[in-house]
């Protein structure tokens, strides 16, 4: 069996919070609320972890699951 060349890792929570804050500032003050920023960052973190977990899952058919 071949060695896995790529391991997918989700971004850190700090990176997601920074992204959510920047997006909130661009959308307006209502979206820059700390609860909205935290909720968006948490949601993106969940999606990123699930996606990384799926991409790192061994495939029986040997097909690379990488996204390009």
Question: Gist?
Answer:
This protein is an all-alpha fold and 68 residues long. It has two helices and no strands.
**How many E strands?**
0
The whole-number mean of residue pLDDT values reads 88
* Binned strand content: under 5%
Radius of gyration: 16 Å
Largest β sheet strand count, sense and barrel closure: none
Provide the low-confidence segments as ranges: none
Order of helices and strands: HH
- Report how far the terminal alpha carbons are from each other: 23 Å
| Helical/strand content category | mainly alpha
* Helical percentage: 55-70%
Q: What general outline do the C-alpha atoms trace?
A: elongated
Total helical elements? 2
Q: Your description of this structure?
A:
The chain has 68 residues and is mostly helical. It has a domain at 13-55. It has helices spanning 13-27, 34-56. Helix 1 (13-27) packs across helix 2. The radius of gyration is 16 Å and the shape is elongated. The model has no long low-confidence stretch (mean pLDDT 88).
């Amino acid at each position: 069996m071949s060695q896995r060349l790529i391991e997918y890792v989700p971004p850190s929570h700090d990176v997601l919070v920074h992204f959510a804050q920047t997006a909130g500032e661009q959308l307006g003050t209502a979206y820059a609320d700390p609860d909205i920023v935290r909720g968006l960052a948490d949601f993106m973190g969940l999606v990123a972890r699930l996606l990384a977990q799926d991409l790192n899952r061994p495939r029986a058919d040997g097909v690379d699951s990488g996204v390009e």
